[in-house]
Structures are given as C-alpha cells and as structure tokens.
Amino acid sequence: MQSTSIMLEVKHIRANQKEYVQALKKRNFEADSVFEAILNLDERRRSTQKKLDEILFESNSLSKEIGMLFKSGEAEKANAAKVKTAGLKEDSKRLGEEMGDVATELQALLYQVPNIPHPSVPAGKSEEDNEEIFSEGEIPILSKSALPHWELAKKYDIIDFELGNKITGAGFPVYKGKGARLQRALISYFLDKNTEAGYNEVQVPLLVNEASGYGTGQLPDKEGQMYHVGNDDLYLIPTSEVPLTNIYRDDLLNFKDLPIQLTAYTPCFRREAGSYGAHVRGLNRLHQFDKVELVNLVKPDDSYQVLDAMVEHIKTILRELKLPYRILRLCGGDLGFTSALTFDFELFSTAQDRWLEISSVSNFETFQANRLKIRYKDVDNKKALIHTLNGSSLALPRVLAGILENYQTDEGIVIPEVLRPYAGFDKIS
RNA sequence: GGAGAAAUGGCAGAGCGGUCGAAUGCGGCAGUCUUGAAAACUGUUGAGGGUCACACCUCCGGGGGUUCGAAUCCCUCUUUCUCCGCCA
C-alpha cells in the first residue's frame, strides 16, 4: 500500500463532526464511533509527534555539539557526550514506531468513511428512492414483432455473444461488421462532442498499480470488482476515471491551470461478481465494455457549476441521438462511496421495457483529491485541495442496445442521423 | 532478458560524513527604471507537520542499515539513461 500522508480531512471532521454524522445518516452510515476513534487517534498522533520532536531536537543539538567538540580537539568531552545519546536513540526509535502504528491505524479508519453527501441528496435505502429530476425524448411505439437487442444482434449478425464465450467467457462479446463499425462510430462521435466542449483527449494505460486504485477509491472498497494481474500486481481498470484522475496524483497545481478537463476512450473491465440472471442478458452487463469518460479537476468554488455543465453536456448528446432518457438524483443509499452528489442518466430500452444506466455524473469534492493529494495554489498563494468530478459520456454497450431497440423497423435498424457520417451507412439490414 | 551509469528544489546542476533544506544558473513573484513593454538592477521564491505567532520536527527516488551525526558510506527495491539481445 502506498504511504499517503495523514489525511488533511481530520481537521474537517473535528470542525464539523455533528454535521457530518447527520449527513452520513442519509447514506445509512453510522459515523459516531468511527469519528470518535479517529479524533482520539489523531489526538494521540499529535501528542506522540510532539514528544518525538522534542527528543529529536535534543539529539540533534547533542550531535552538533559533539561535532564541534571533535573539531576543536576536545575528544574526551565529545566521547562523554556520546554516552548521553544512547537513551535518546532508544526513545526516538520507540516513539517512531508508535507514530507509525498510530498513523496506519488512523488511515485505516479514515478509509472506512464514505464521502459526505451533498445537502440535496435525498435520504433513502436503495435505487427505489432515487429521485427523478428530468426526462426527455420520445419513447417509440414498436411493432409487435419488435425484438430485444440480443435478438437483433443475432438477426443481423452484428454482435456474437457465443463467440465471446468461446474465446474468453461470458460477458465478453465479439462485435462484427456493422456492429463493430457502429461501436467505433459512437466512440468517435462522443470524443468529438467532448473535444468541442473543451475537453482534452488523452489515451491512458488500461492497467494501473495499487496506489492508483487507492487514489480514486476503488481500493480497498471495491477490491473484488477489479481484475487483478497477480504476476505484476496490477489491476485492469474498471473505468478510465482511475488512470485519468491519477495523472495528477501528488501534484500541486497552479490556479491558472484549472479547470483541467479530460476525456478518454477506454475499454473497462469489471468482474461483476454475484450478478447473474435474466437482467444481465445481452449488452446489459458485461465484463469488458467500452466507455468514453469525462474528468474535471476544478477549484472548489466551481465544482457544482461544472457538475451542472456536465449534465447539460450529456443531455445534448442524448438529444442529438434522439434517445429517450431520464435523469436521477441518487439517494444516500445508492450513492457511491466516494461521491458527494451523483446524477445517473438512464436510457429507456423499449424492447425490454426497462431503464438502463448509461452515465453516472459525480462530484467527489475533495474526497479523491485528498487521497490523491491533488492541491492547487490560489491567487493568494493559499494551498487547498481541488475538487474532482467525472461522468461517462457515454457507456457504449447500453447506448448501442438502446439504438438497436429503439431504432428498429421492419426494414432494419435505422442509424441515428448524427452517427451516419461516422458509421458510413444509414441502416443495418 | 544481459552489461554498465544515474536518481538532489518548477527546470538545469553543484555538493560525496558535521550549522546543507541544500551553492550557482534559468524560470516564477515583487520592486526600481520606463508613457507602456523589453533589457538592466534589487529583493524574494520547495513541501509537510506543529504553533495564536515563533520555536521545533520531517523530507535530497522508496524502504532498511552503519554512525553521536547521512544528500553524502553500505544493503535492497523502483525508475531513468547508454550499450547488447529480442520484438509490435
């Protein structure tokens, strides 16, 4: 595990203990005892540090003295002074170890605390309690012969699930012909839209180390979600958020550099342990899928405005694709561990008669920046943690599923107009 | 994969056992000069902890060791560069 410094957030916990406990109740997290333990440990950390500092000061001064004595030829006196250092050495070693233990314990506790939900987050237990805040797009009326996307995929031979089973296993489909081409068209279209909106396109590694996993909060919380490459102790990314946000790990940025807006296309890998059954059919849930991601690093004061802008940006894309969707504000129970406020975009899958999540847009405030130690220096030279945000724009398979299902006609699948220049065809038949 | 060399502040680059948190140059910031700018000159300029503020402590790739004392010596890991081999 990486040796992140003691979290700066302890300060905030101490200052806002009551409010935080209250807010965390919304996500059904009882923080009382953890906070108690954290504050006690922090107290102990500081007192131990103080004692250690004093001893080190003493032994530093003694060493300097000894040096001077040797220089001036007073070897006897010097040797006498040496004797005194033995006890100090022992004490400092003991206190040093104690410091290490306290710090490790403190960090372990801090890692257990999820992000403090934004005031607008509704209380709630599960996805049932998410709040729909917007919806748009016409739900097409399909003919009686309409098929779910996995049937369409077979009918037009554009996605082969069985082939994926053979090569790898369930959840690794093979896209073929116009299916592959359409997938590529979507990726290019999304990236172009993001670039137009001011995002900087980057390509990132698909394997990340442990430190990166801790930085964005996948570790230790979601250890089992990621594929782990044991030989080299690396993880396959579950989302490009991980490498993207870790680009700036341990950095002290200048306020002039902000906002930093990144977009990337990557495959994503998720073990999805424990999720089986009919609702994961076809493209609904995969172990490997493509996604175009947005990441924003901003000054704290700007983050909620940027969150809104991200939501608007994704709306624009879905509007252009003419797909029916809705936006949910996640309730405390459904909110991710690292997020303070999340909006989910769901696409209506007409042939399946259900909503599919295609984007999740979150403000992490300082939660990730704290773990990643991404700070910035403001105009007045004050240093503070930045805010990080991310969102999908968009997750490919479900968008593809939505297009296949919602755009199906008796003559074949019509390609949404905006995608035609990218795809090079206007129909799959 | 084999053989060598190296890792120091935003960058470049000294220091190789004792006031070294670190010379010097560039860059950055502030000021003087200027109608304004450039140039020149002057000053200032790493990070974290701690404190009301000082004091004080820690950090010269990571970890460990030797020593009263380590950027400097030893071990180890990682990374980078050069040469060789292999290769998309």
Could you estimate the helical fraction of the residues in percent? Answer: 40-55%
The CATH level-2 architecture of the largest domain is identified as 2-Layer Sandwich
Using the CA coordinates, give the radius of gyration.
Answer: 27 Å
What class do helices, strands and sheet pairing give? alpha+beta
* CATH topology title of the largest domain: BirA Bifunctional Protein, domain 2
Spatial sequence of strands, sheet with the most strands: 1-11-12-13-16-10-9-4
Largest beta-sheet details: 8 strands, mixed
Uncertain ranges: 1-6
Mean residue pLDDT: 89
Domain module count: 2
Tell me the CATH superfamily of the largest domain.
Bira Bifunctional Protein, Domain 2
Q: What is the CATH top level name of the largest domain? A: Alpha Beta
**Count of strand segments:** 19
Shape: elongated
Total helix count? 12
Q: Termini, distance in Å?
A: 53 Å
What oligomeric state is this? single chain
